[in-house]
Amino acid sequence: MCNRYANTISYQQYVEEFSETRLPLLVPGPSHAPNLEPRLDIRPTDRAPVLLPIEGGLELREMRWGLIPWFHKKTVKEWKPLTTNARSETIDTTASFKSAFARRRCLIPVSSFYEWTGEKGKKVKWRFAVPSGDWFCFAGIWDRAHTADGDIESYALATLPPDRLSEQYHDRRPLILDRDDYAAWLDSPETAKALFTTPKDRHLTVELAA
Q: Model confidence over 170-201: pLDDT tens digits?
C-alpha cells in the first residue's frame, strides 16, 4: 500500500515527456500553463495532479486523493472507507472502484513514494525512486461524485502483490507503468487488466527518507 508520495514535476517536463508520443499533453495548453509547486509529501485527501485521456492526448487536472465513487450523495466527511488504493485482484468487482476502472482510468505522475517499517512509535520511513531520478506514473482510476458538498473529482492508485524488493517493506506495491504501457492502461479495461498479469520486478532505489 502507498499512502504518501511526492510530485516535483514541472509543466514543461510533462510537455516534453509526452511530446513525442501519441499521448501529448493538450490541456492546459502553454497559454494556460499552471504554476506547479513541488509537493514532497502528498497525503490522502490532498489534491494532486493526474493525467486523463482526452481526444488526441492528455489533460492535466488536479483531484482529491482517495476515491469517492459516483454513487455517494452525502457529504465528503461521511465517506468513511479508505479508498486511496485499489487492489488489482478486485478493482473490477469492488463497488467503489468497478465503474471507475471500466470507464475512467488515469495516470498518476510521481517523483517518489514512501513506505514505513517497524513498530508503532518506532517506524522508519523509506523513499522509493527510479535510479535515474526521473519521474514515472502509477496506474490510476478516477471518479466524479455529486455530493452534498458539490461535485468532487477524486482518484485511487492500483496496487499489486509485492515483488522481491517491495515485500521487504510492505505486502502490496503500486502498479508502476512503463512509458510503453501508458496507452494500454488508458485504452480499455481489457488492455489495462492485462498489465496486472504480467508484473515486472522494478529496479528502484530505496533510501531512508528525511
A: 889 999 998 989 999 999 999 999 999 875 66
Cα–Cα dist 194/165, whole Å: 22
pLDDT-derived band at 168, boundaries 50, 70, 90: confident
DSSP 60-114: EEEEEES---TT--S-GGG--S--SEEETTTTTTSTTTHHHHHH-EEEEEESEEE
Question: For residues 145 and 68, is the Cβ–Cβ distance under 8 A?
Answer: yes
**Residue 126: CATH number of its domain:** 3.90.1680.10
Contact present, 158 and 141 (Cβ < 8 Å) = yes
Q: Are 119 and 79 in contact (CB under 8 A)?
A: no
Residue type, 96: S
Domain count, the chain: 1
- Give the N- to C-terminal CA distance of the chain in Å, as an integer: 20
Q: Range of 121's domain?
A: 5-208
